[in-house]
Write a structure and sequence with these properties.
Elements (H helix, E strand, L loop, with lengths): L21 E8 L6 E5 L4 E6 L2 E2 L6 E3 L1 E4 L4 E8 L7 E2 L1
Antiparallel strand pairs: 1-7, 2-6, 2-8, 3-4, 3-5, 3-7
Length: 90
């Protein structure tokens, strides 16, 4: 079973609301036995930290999908500047 915040994708029906132009930071933790390419529809995000360590601005990179390997973390940030419901999934 794969989950976000302890909820299976098929069970998550309520969006997480953000204010327009709010900077959003999401920490992705992979405690499973396989790598997961996490994708955010409608946005580019920046990878700003790996395995709990912040990356300096010059080392951050933009993505729409980030591979979260087994036993690793990735922190991503984006600005919620487009209204709507946007899916984040593997």
């Amino acid at each position: 079973m794969w989950s976000f915040d302890g909820e299976r994708f098929s069970e998550v029906t309520e969006p997480i609301p953000f204010r327009r132009d709010e900077r959003v930071r999401v920490t992705l933790v992979n405690d499973s036995m396989m790598a997961h390419p996490i994708h955010l529809h409608g946005y580019y995000f920046k990878v700003v930290a790996t395995d709990g360590g912040a990356l300096p601005p010059a080392a951050q990179w933009p993505e729409t999908t980030v591979l979260v390997a087994v036993g690793t973390t990735r922190d991503v940030e984006f600005v919620a500047d487009e209204p709507g419901d946007w899916a984040m999934h593997c």
